Amino acid sequence: MEEKVGFRRALSASIVLGLYSGFMLAVAIAMSMGTEGLKLAAFLWGLVIVLCSIFLTPILAVGRKRGRPETDEFVNSLRKGLETLNEGVGGWRALSHVRGEGFGASVSLSNATNPLLIIEKSLSLAGNSKIIFRFPKDDPSLRDRVLPILEDKVGSTRIQRRTKSLTVVPEVIFDRSVIITRSMMLCPPLMVAGSVGFYSVAPGQPFLMVIGAVAGAILGLMIVTNNGRQ
Q1: Hey, which bits of 141-230 come out as E strands?
Q2: Which residues pair with 168 in a beta bridge?
Q3: What residues have CB less than 8 Å from 209, skipping those under 6 apart?
């Protein structure tokens, strides 16, 4: 379930990114040059919008918006895949213990004689969907036993921990469009903060603004490209 972003949507995104990043650049120039730099700030703001529209639009247009299966469809496929683990009336059953929740599904482990097998099978069927494992009240230690197993299978960064549940979220995939968008949103404010901060150390030294902006851009790129792997 994938669809192309398209030219119109990419153009809109490029203009918004240009407005945002250009505004940050204009703010930095206005703060450092005062009223004398207002015309330059306005010109550069407009220039950034135009450049983003020209250069970012074709890049974002060829990207793809990753779709996710509908919740009902995912729940039905998960139930069907777990039917072989049904334990009969009074025991664990896929039909009653697997439900849709938010943009994913929840799997209750109550009445399950082999919860680890249910978890392993559920993970193999989850794909790119969120899945929540809910633990029974009469066995509070089960959550603590399952947590290291999940961390070993999917990694600790994909697990959201609650007192009575563990949620496995889809893996975050960084493609070109995601990196560009996040960089354009995060780097400009860091560049402004860096240039203003460096310039305040020794006013009258314009090269410090450049150094501060470069430092802010590097910090922003490091944050964007860090996907939390351990």
Answers
A1: 159-161, 165-168
A2: 131, 159
A3: 28, 32, 195, 196, 198, 199
User: What letter does residue 36 receive in the DSSP assignment?
Assistant: G
As beta bridge partners, residue 166 has: 133, 161
94 near 109, Cβ under 8 Å? no
Asked if residue 17 lies in contact with residue 57, where contact means CB atoms within 8 angstroms, the answer is: no
The conformation of residue 85, written as its DSSP 8-state character, comes to G
Q: What is the phi-psi region of residue 166: left when phi exceeds 0, alpha when psi lies from -120 to 50, beta otherwise?
A: beta
CB atoms within 10 A of CB 108: 19
Q: Residue 210 — left, alpha, or beta (φ > 0 → left; ψ -120 to 50 → alpha)?
A: alpha
Residue showing tokens 């996710």: 68
Q: What is the pLDDT along the chain (230 residues), one digit of tens a residue?
A: 445 567 788 888 889 888 888 888 887 777 767 677 788 888 888 998 999 899 888 887 776 555 555 678 889 999 999 999 999 888 899 999 999 988 889 999 998 999 999 999 999 998 888 999 999 988 878 999 999 989 988 888 889 999 889 999 887 666 677 777 888 888 888 888 887 788 777 777 777 778 888 888 888 888 877 754 43
pTM, two decimals, is 0.56
